[in-house]
Design brief:
By secondary structure, this protein is mainly beta. It has one helix spanning about 5-30, and strands spanning about 55-65, 70-80, 85-90, 95-105, 105-110, 115-120, 125, 135, 150-155, 160-170. Strands 1, 2, 3, 4, 5, 6, 7, 8, 9 and 10 form a ten-stranded mixed beta sheet that branches.
């Protein structure tokens, strides 16, 4: 059961996420909502943060999950003249790690991302199933479609940024995370968060 503080935080962030989602939909002009991996242009940024942050975060979402692991996704937008590096992520719902998908011994595996997530200057970096993502290692309670979750990113220079994301159902190609996050359940296939 969510604590009263968490429920209040989730409800307060609902208006922020709804506004950001509406702005993203208007700026995308016809992009498919079923394609969370579509790469938006940096000039049409709709940040889901309550305040201006180090990076813009477009279309943030979390895969709904009953137990175990899941992940957060979205498009990070850096309008600054210098690169920024995300070195950590945190949530009250679960311990978190920055992850990537990579080939290892002929198999696609999920692993911690060495050096963090770099968002190049005047560029975007997509967090998506089968690619870089913010991994929730062991959710304390089910994450249901429509839930609002709050995350805090930590940058290499010590700055932090909080943002909210909505949980969505996502089946992808029916892959699932193995209990030990370093091994792929199906050789040659990328993995999506398990329900």
């Amino acid at each position: 059961m969510l604590s009263t503080t968490l429920v209040g935080r989730y409800r307060r962030s609902a208006a922020v996420v709804a506004t950001a989602t509406l702005l993203a939909a208007v700026s995308a002009c016809g992009s498919s909502e079923d394609s969370p991996s579509a790469t938006p242009s940096p000039s049409a940024v709709a940040s889901a943060s309550a305040t201006a942050g180090v990076v813009g975060i477009r279309d943030p979402w979390v895969k709904a999950a009953d137990t175990g692991m899941t992940a957060a996704f979205g498009t990070l937008v850096n309008d600054a003249d210098t690169d920024v590096t995300i070195v950590g992520a945190a949530s009250e719902l679960s311990p978190m790690e920055l992850h990537e998908m990579a080939m290892e011994n002929g198999k696609m595996v999920m692993r911690a991302k060495p050096g963090g997530v770099v968002v190049k200057a005047k560029s975007t970096h997509v967090l998506e199933p089968g690619g870089d993502h913010l991994m929730l290692m062991n959710v304390k309670q089910p994450v249901r479609a429509g839930d609002q979750l709050t995350f805090t990113l930590t940058f290499a220079d010590g700055r932090t940024q909080t943002f909210s994301a909505v949980a969505k159902p996502f089946t992808g190609a029916q892959e699932s995370y193995a209990p030990g996050h370093g091994a792929s359940p199906t050789p040659g296939m990328s993995m999506s968060p398990a329900a």
